[in-house]
Amino acid sequence: MENTSIAIKTNDLTKRFGKRNAVDAINIEINHGEIFSLLGKNGAGKTTTIKMLCCLLRPSSGSAEIMGYDIRKSPLEIKRIIGVSPQETAIAGHLNTKENLLLIGGVFGLKRGLSIERAKNLMELMELEDRKDQAQKLSGGMQIRLSIAIALMSEPQILFLDEPTLGLDPHARKSVWNYINKLKREKTILLTTHYMEEADSLADHIAIIDNAQIITSGTSAELKHKHESIQSLKISADDISSDILDGLKNKGMEVISTMNSIVINSVELDFYSIINYLQTKNIKIKGIQMQEPTLEEVFLHLTRKEVKNENH
Ligand SMILES: Nc1ncnc2c1ncn2[C@@H]1O[C@H](COP(=O)(O)OP(=O)(O)OP(=O)(O)O)[C@@H](O)[C@H]1O
Ligand SMILES: [Mg+2]
């Protein structure tokens, strides 16, 4: 039986450019109404994945279904139900904000009245002024908001946002997060970002893609839990000398010290050997606190060059 709660499903989706695998047999499932974030270093394969799912690029092998439609067989049906805000944004620079939106309304064959109404609502939602300036004269952040509004013009069920907050100032980024949150549950959203905080706060599920392959996936909490061995340990104690710090560093640990505490970031923390070591040095430990890794720490650890793929 087909699982109807799934909006996007890929099956060994692969894209090769010459000999290079840009996307290598990835399998992801995205539920209706959820925000799914694809994280990965530059060149990991995020945009290529989105382009295949939007039917802008044909897969070399494997397949994917968007709301039950096969990306290889039904691109027209798929284009009707998706909206895309591409990494390089897709605005017509010589048109103003409203004209850009009306143009897309026209592309989707909306009646003029409906098109004007949607444009007005979207400009309100994205806090875009009805300026007469050409879109190319808008600031980068405004252009991104317009790009998202354009993607929403056809009232798509599925929205692809490829780095929607790239280069935005912290205020603008927070407001884009607000808009995305407003769309949550109504739309299924695939979001790529290099801001871990963004994925952490917005995404229901996260997948990390590295060297064209999905290396881990789950909720943010699951990822942190799954990789809790990279947690850090905070030890409070007086009189932590530089000799002791050096001793820990010599054991291959990354140690940050303050006046009366040390924080040890270690890939594989050997809790007991650390405590034993400090006791042999007659350090009076006042407190010990294990700190869960942040999503950024999980990401940095898993996508380091020397880390082997978890699944392969
Ligand atoms: N049209 C193309 N021809 C050849 N190689 C390509 C093409 N498009 C992408 N690639 C390559 O595919 C790989 C994945 O690129 P992609 O744009 O998907 O990465 P990304 O994860 O989106 O990176 P970024 O974070 O920098 O946006 C890269 O090695 C890239 O150079
Ligand atoms: Mg990209």
Can you characterise this structure?
This protein is α/β, with parallel strands linked by helices. The protein folds into two domains: 220 residues, Rossmann fold (3-Layer(aba) Sandwich); 60 residues, Alpha-Beta Plaits, CATH 3.30.70. The chain is built from eleven helices and 15 strands. It has a six-stranded mixed beta sheet with strand order 7-8-9-4-10-11, with helices on both faces. Strands 1, 2, 3, 5 and 6 form a five-stranded antiparallel beta sheet that branches. A four-stranded antiparallel beta sheet has the order 13-14-12-15, with helices on one face. Strand 1 and strand 2 form a beta hairpin. Helix 3 packs across helix 4. The two termini are 28 Å apart. The relative contact order is 0.13. The C terminus is likely disordered. The structure holds adenosine-5'-triphosphate (ATP) and magnesium ion. Magnesium ion binds next to helix 1. The site of adenosine-5'-triphosphate has 12 residues, from strand 2 and helix 1.
